[in-house]
Amino acid sequence: MSDMTRERRTAPDRAGTQRPLLVTGLVGAVWCVGIGLAVLVTVTLVGWIAAPRSALGTGLPGVFRTAVTFWLVAHHAGLSLPDGRVGLLPLGVVALPGALLYRCGGWMLRTSGRRTRRGVVDVAVALAVPYTLFAGLLALAATKPPVRPSPWQALLCCFTVALVAGGLGAARGIVARRGRVRSGLGALLRLLPERPRSLVVGVSGALAVLLAAGALLVGVALAFHLPEANRLYGELAPGVVGGVLLLVVELAFLPNAIIWGTSYAVGAGFAVGTGTSVSVTGVFLDTVPAFPPLAALPDPGPAPALSLLALAAPFAAGAVGGVLTVRALPSPAAETAPLWGFTTGALTGLVLAALAALSGGPMGGGRLRTVGPSPWQVGLLAALEVGVAAALAAWLANGRALRRTGEPKPRRRRRPPRPPRDAAPVLLTEPLPDPVVPLPAPEPAPKPVPAVPDPLEFEDAEPVLPARRTRPPEPEPDEPRPRDDRTENRGGAIFVLRDEADD
């Protein structure tokens, strides 16, 4: 079978696999919701068997409602309890639905056959709308006293997570055809224009430095307070299965702790209850819940001297963000580079404020109604500190880039040297300038040189007699006839023959 026949037979089959986008979005939403619920129901069943059964619901319907509540919490949707509202939710659990939606976005793009930037938006919306409808139905199914999920938060959070994760997966699907892309951020950068791309690169670099500083601060604090964390773990006595579940919960709250450490490094700090504060200006604490990661909190009083080194993190983040912004797209005007650097710092503060709002929240009523950092304080301080450092770093880096890419200094024009005769011809990429050569003075006419015979050239004696001259015409009778002498060569000697009649 020829290749052309094979292509003709497979073309209808390939076209037949392309489904309508609405149908693909519905299938993808069912797939993501089903897998996410299956994982959480399994974990809830294990906890229900290991722990007292009344803690996670009564009977299998109660276990299913608890699993649905955990699924909504994984999208950062809050709950309402008789004592108050629960808004302090683990950010690490968002990775489960985010990964499923990310994969589903790429699959929908390949199935629908869309290969444009508009197709990314269409795929993200087609996935987010049915996913949000399923989330609303599940929130209504899980609503039963004493736990009541917030319907509007369930709709808003599930739509946002599906839109962002599905869009990144679709963007990666488009760029993956042109080359290998490892992350959704790389796909997003390739689809953005130059200036937004440079800002995203700068903000990502600054956030990476800030979050790394927060993680380092949390790790050092846990290392110094490890004995107290072991004491709290012993008081809880969760057992083997409960210990594994407790470790999962601690890992789920680890991103929240890193953001709290970043807020401490910025200078805003955070609260663990009403009237408390943990910042560089001092530590004011009250009774802390018995949760092992909270053992890393410093003792009340002045802030530890070692933790003051974290105050250099915002300025280092600003320097990194400003340099990355300029390296991604240098500014042709030197006075606009600090403006783009400060814009990078302002956007970094905005993103960090959003992360601070997601990492904190109330833990019921009473004193724990305020837990976590203040979003506006974190955003304002981060924007100022990172923005000033980024503006200065962008100005210096942009000036250096302009000096490297600027025009060279003019040089005195010189006539290029004449290449040797045996050298290979050189191809010039640019035409050489015409040298300015003065007109030569007129030279005097050369004097004629007498011809000098070459000493090596000579003539041999002619070995034969020359040709005989023609006889002149007969003179008139009355005039005497001129004498006619003849010569004859005999054996190399020349003889003169006279005419006897004349004698």
Explain what this protein looks like in three dimensions.
This protein has 503 residues and is mainly alpha-helical. It folds into two domains: 8-191, no CATH class; 193-404, no CATH class. Helix content is 55%, strand content 6%. It is built from 14 helices and nine strands. It has helices at residues 3-16, 21-50, 59-74, 95-112, 117-142, 151-175, 184-191, 194-224, 226-236, 239-252, 254-266, 313-328, 337-359, 375-405, and strands spanning 79-81, 84-86, 148-149, 271-272, 277-279, 282-284, 371-372, 486-490, 493-497. The strands form four sheets. Strands 2-1-3 form a three-stranded antiparallel beta sheet. The protein has a two-stranded antiparallel sheet with strand order 4-7. A two-stranded antiparallel ribbon has the order 5-6. Strand 1 and strand 2 (84-86) form a beta hairpin. Helix 4 crosses helix 6 (151-175). The protein is flat. The N and C termini lie far apart (124 Å). The model is unreliable at 1-16, 407-411 and 454-461 (pLDDT under 50). Residues 403-503 are annotated as: Disordered. Keywords: Membrane, Transmembrane, Transmembrane helix. Residues 471-489 have a biased composition (Basic and acidic residues).
